[in-house]
Amino acid sequence: MKWQRVAALAAFLWFGVLAVGYMVVHAPVAAASLAGLGRTLLCILAVLLLVALAGALGTLVTGRLAGLYDLERVAVSLLFGLALISLVILLLSLLHLYPPAWLGWLLTAGLTSVLFRPLAGWWRKLTNGMRSCITREDGWYLRFVQLSILVMLVLALILALAPPTKWDSLTYHLVGPETYLENGGTVSIPENHFLGFPMLAHMLYLWVMLLSGPNAVALLHAVFGLAALLLVLGFSQRIGYRSAGWLAVAVLLISDTIRGEFSWPYIDLALMAYTFAAVALVIADGENGAGYRYTILSGIFVGCMLGVKYTAATYTIGLGLLSLWAHRKPSWWRSVKITALLTFVALLSFSPWLVKNRIVDGNPIAPFVWGTAGFDELDQWYYLLPGTGLSLLEILVLPVQVPVFGAEMGTFQGATGPLLFALIPFAFLGWKKRLLGYRRAVVSLSVVAGCGYAAWLAGAASSWLLL
């Protein structure tokens, strides 16, 4: 028996040596592929760690956020935390104090572990919110919509890990952070006027690039998109139409452009998330009388909108009107004071990006109005091409042209899909039978969206490039 065991052990050893030797010589996975997989996992880990830190930090600062549903609280806390981290990175960038990658990992992981309790609370709200949004009572059609959303998001997130190819990404969304990293901090690049644009999202992109590389950027941009979708679901719950929230998310993802943005290193999903967060907070404040706390928070998010992209200014008018209307009771004077506070906080929240431009390019709203060293009056004229816009007739038929003919590489450089426009009239059918919260929400959203749409029409009438 003893010799039989030795013989068996020798046989297995012989088999192992040959098998391992063969796999070493004829590796089933190339070393380059393994290295690429490792870099991809590192990018995912960097984004998850930054999201965890932002969620914990936002939860710690914003508190309970009474009057909102769990998914709204999760998104608001995350967006607030990301904005706060962005300001810290901006300061480091202006001071040329980037840490080495290993120290960046240590700082991010260390702060996240210190904030474990608020992180656990943020995660608990996320899981509870999803449980309340997906119930056993959901019908087969709602299950189909939920499954379709999951499939679309999974495919988009997989594509987010692919190398970037979009023009805007390779022109400034990635080039800006990469240039700053190469120079050890924020520097003026006159030949690339895009780097004068607000950089709230870009500072976060810079950090994940420092930790892992550029492939993490699209994934972080997708996180902003997920926050926007959570806001839509939570908001729909709050107005009493939970299933409509799932339909709204599906309508957004049916849009080729919006779904595509989940895979691109862009900034538009960040703008979408901060805009809807500001709208949801103003509505909640008007309904619940949450006091100045929500006004300050919504003002911060309005500033964050502008800190992501200048074009957010088209929605600030709508948010101002919404604030005046939402707070009109018990008196219009109180409404004016609250809106004035919201405006002041928004400007204060936006001011770091004005200061950054003043320091770097000598123009707080670079590259526009006063121009920069590489962007003079002729450049500004060519950038806007005034007087080349659409005629009145063309403006009137845009609601038909955009959903039908809109394509990512076409005239409008964006594909909304048909449902975003086609379903609007249905929101007003059976108006008197709708819940009061629903009617208030539709009116509020119509005010903000209407002002943004009107501003876009004005741009399209003045310049073909603003389509």
- H/E series, N to C? HHHHHHHHHHHHHHHHHHHHH
Shape: globular
* Secondary-structure class: mainly alpha
Q: Compute the gyration radius: what is it?
A: 25 Å
Beta-strand fraction estimate = under 5%
Number of separate strands: 0
Q: Could you describe the 3D structure shown?
A:
This protein is mostly helical and 467 residues long. It has 21 helices and no strands. The protein has helices at 2-25, 31-62, 70-94, 101-114, 116-133, 140-160, 167-173, 175-183, 200-211, 215-238, 242-254, 256-261, 268-288, 292-308, 313-326, 332-361, 377-384, 392-396, 398-405, 419-422, 436-462. The radius of gyration is 25 Å and the shape is globular.
Label this structure with key terms.
467 residues, mainly alpha, 73% helix, 0% strand
At a glance:
By secondary structure, this protein is mainly α. The protein is built from 21 helices and no strands.
Write the layout of secondary structure elements.
Layout: H1 2-25, H2 31-62, H3 70-94, H4 101-114, H5 116-133, H6 140-160, H7 167-173, H8 175-183, H9 200-211, H10 215-238, H11 242-254, H12 256-261, H13 268-288, H14 292-308, H15 313-326, H16 332-361, H17 377-384, H18 392-396, H19 398-405, H20 419-422, H21 436-462
